[in-house]
Design brief:
The protein has 3 helices and 2 strands; from the N terminus they run αααββ. The chain has a domain at about 70-115. It is elongated and about 65 Å long. With about 120 residues, the protein is α+β, with helices and mostly antiparallel strands. It has a two-stranded antiparallel ribbon with strand order 1-2. InterPro entries: METTL25.
Amino acid sequence: VHGIKRSDRNIGKVYSKSSSFLDYVRISLKKLELDESKISDSLVLEYFEKYKHRMNELEAFNMLKVVLGPCIEVLILLDRLCYLKEQENIAWSGLVKLFDPIKSPRCYAVVALKK
């Protein structure tokens, strides 16, 4: 997508604030600072009708993300920690909880001290 930096491509929790798919698309385009006038309402609704039969697949994918996401994040943290444990110039390494995991699941930091 032109004009958008890769780090800016997150629209956040727009879906829960939207009253319809069309509203979701319009809010998302505004948040991404894209020209929404280039996409007509009829085109958006046409796409929705064309792919709505796949909504169950989308819901299943989102459930997998919710269930497997934290597991994958822990595996990544443990992999980084194992790498540090293997290094001869590291005196100590560990996972440190920075804040309450209820507020944010990404509450851990990988910390290491050099020898």
